[in-house]
Amino acid sequence: MTPDAPQDALRAGVLVDPVALAAELAGDEAPVLLDVRWALGRADGHERYLDEHLPGAVYVDLERELAAPASPERGRHPLPDVAALEAAARRWGVREGGRVVAYDDVGGTSAARAWWLLRWAGLRDVRLLDGGLAAWRDRGLALEAGVVVPEPGDVVLAPGSLPTTDADGVAAWSGVVLDARAPERFAGETEPVDPRAGHVPGALSAPTAGNLGSDGAFLPAPVLRDRYAALGATGGRPVAVYCGSGVTAAHDVAALASIGVDAVLYPGSWSQWSHDPSRPVATGR
Predict the structure, then answer these.
(1) Which of 243, 250, 253, 255 is the catalytic position?
(2) Is the dihedral of CA 22, 9, 231, 196 positive or negative?
(3) Closest Cα partner for 37 from 22, 16, 58?
(4) What is the pLDDT of residues 248-277, one digit of tens each?
């Protein structure tokens, strides 16, 4: 999509609100629901899924199904092998040409990884539940407990439908580089998981939390556009995004896509960059 497309159509291609999703689930061709509950430092996503989830939703393990094993050379959440991703998507019940909606309970910051990966792997109709589990619950919509085992899907995936870059590409980037981590990590004031504190020289701080309102839903399109315009990301220059390990950066990519800006993900992100002593590090806000 391009910046000239109507804003509502752009947003509808990325996000779906709970009421609209409930209507789709009641239809003949309901989308596959992926529950991607994950957060840095927490390992209870599956237990919370078992307690309650959207009707028919399948649990997705971000660490095991949406990433390859971590390494200093590739980062904490390298892109998975596409054959492994395809096998996982078939287990989730994803069919060729089918629709997918991913959600979590942290404003889409983990579900965006599934959104980005499936689009990168060629699935066209993938959206995020705007506001996630909280928005669904706040509207009084049905929840269920236990495990969902869907009929296996037949989707065929191939990498490359969304662009990526690497450390060398970011180092030589001619446009805007955005850092989606919290401001204190960008500034180098704290670094809880990676070996060096700071950010890629020349990058601008665009924390993922800034995409969301107090209700955990994405900000209105005009507000998002103003946010990214202030960072120079809406003027036609190429935009690259990274975070700690390539997870929450996908949230910035999704926010940008919802206003018609195509951004490039750096999957290795800070967890890869900071492990390489030859890479320079900047600090400060």
Answers:
(1) 243
(2) positive
(3) 58
(4) 999 999 999 999 999 999 999 999 999 999
Q: Is the pLDDT of residue 39 over 90?
A: no
pTM for the full model?
Answer: 0.95
Buried b (16+ CB within 10 A) or exposed e, 198-215: bbbeebebbbbebbbeee
Q: State the first-to-last Cα distance of the chain, in angstroms, to the nearest integer.
A: 33
Nearest residue to 104 via CA among 141, 137, 70, 74: 137
How far from 165 is each of 101, 109, 168, 250, 260, CA to CA, in Å? Answer: 26, 20, 8, 13, 20
What are the structural domains, with CATH classification, of the chain?
7-138 (3.40.250.10), 167-273 (3.40.250.10)
Active site residue 201: no
Residues 6+ apart with CB under 8 A from 13: 1, 127, 257, 258
